[in-house]
Design brief:
The protein is mostly helical. It has one domain (2-331): ABC transporter involved in vitamin B12 uptake, BtuC. It contains 14 helices and no strands. The chain has helices at residues 2-18, 26-36, 46-81, 93-105, 116-139, 148-173, 178-186, 195-213, 216-222, 226-231, 236-258, 264-276, 280-302, 313-331.
Length: 335
């Protein structure tokens, strides 16, 4: 099973490297990779090298990392909150990131003299962390702990506040193409990924997979509720704090570089559970695999469907995710 999953991911990545506005035969893709790894590339041209190694490979690997992180975080949060609708943006991370990005893109406020793209990513990450801090402060106010219901409500409240700020700023100051840039960012894109940002995303995905897998048994206990988890010796409050902060941090990293890509973290965990069961030692790696494959294909479609123009990847994941979610709801027995 694991071998089949790895092979399917590698095959998806290979096809993604070959397809695009300019198709590259798989044999030439392999030649570029062999040459870059120190072998005999068989007469690789500069165009092939630039297209495959410099542009497409960082983007494909970035899609693998972002998809894996979003699906992992969705699986963790659905268990922690016992809410089937939980996704990586539950804690207001995406809304806070949008505030940071809009502040730079529309108001033109710089971040320490950084270039435009880096400034947007930095501001988005800072906004995501600020939103997380506010959500956790509200949820834990009054010394009542970090209950799932209070956390969800705090996340919704902060998301609405951030949305109000974003709307006012765009309407009042969104002249020229600023509004279009904001809309494009909020729908997600992997077009700006280069090796530096991709390596950061791959590191975040690796850390997330290892970190969350270490909590697999505790997440199994959460499936039956807090009382059951406590009876099994699980430190419920500490576990919830650690995992919620961890999911928010890695989600903030992906949003800073790729924008807001919805439905991956919501749908993928539901798709893999019928295949691997409900134990998190299997659900977590399966979710990472499913998210990675889904986003590789979604990004390939985003840059291939329309000639000389990209379709927002967030729109594609929504078009795929909504029917799947409806199908999953229809399959479930009524309770």
């Amino acid at each position: 099973m694991a071998t089949l999953a790895v092979l399917s991911l590698v095959a998806s990545a290979a096809v993604a490297l070959a397809l695009g506005s300019v198709d590259v035969p798989l044999s030439r893709v392999l030649a570029v990779l062999v040459r870059r790894l120190g072998g005999d590339g068989g007469g690789v041209t500069v165009l092939e090298d630039q297209l495959v190694w410099q542009l497409r490979l960082p983007r494909v690997l970035g899609a693998v990392a972002v998809g894996a992180v979003l699906a992992l975080c969705g699986a963790v949060l659905q268990s922690l909150t016992r809410n089937d609708l939980a996704d990586p943006f539950l804690l207001g991370v995406s809304s806070g990131a949008t505030v940071g990005a809009v502040t730079v893109m529309v108001l033109g406020i710089g971040v320490g003299g950084l270039v435009a793209s880096t400034a947007v990513s930095t501001a988005a990450f800072a906004g995501a962390l600020a939103a997380l801090a506010v959500v956790l402060l509200i949820a834990a106010a009054g010394g009542r702990g970090l209950s799932p219901h209070r956390t969800v409500l705090a996340g919704v409240a902060v998301a609405y506040l951030c949305s109000a700020y974003t709307s006012v700023v765009v309407i009042m100051h969104g002249e020229g193409d600023a509004a279009r840039r904001v809309l494009s960012w909020t729908l997600g894109s992997l077009a700006g990924l280069r090796w530096e940002s991709t390596l950061v995303l791959l590191a975040a995905a690796a850390v997330a997979l290892v970190w969350f897998s270490a909590y697999a048994e505790r997440l199994d206990a959460f499936t039956f509720g807090e009382v059951s988890a406590l009876s099994l010796g699980v430190p419920v409050t500490a576990t919830r704090w650690v995992l919620m902060v961890a999911t928010a941090l890695v989600t903030a990293t992906t949003v800073a570089y790729a924008g807001v890509i919805g439905f991956v973290g919501l749908v993928v965990p539901h798709l893999v559970r019928p295949l691997v069961g409900h134990r998190h030692v299997a659900v977590l790696p399966a979710s990472a695999w499913g998210g990675a494959v889904l986003l590789v294909w979604a990004d390939t479609a985003a840059r291939s469907l329309v000639d000389r123009q990209e379709v927002p990847i967030g729109a594609l994941t929504a078009l795929l995710g909504v029917p799947v979610l409806i199908w999953l709801m229809a399959r479930r027995p009524r309770t």
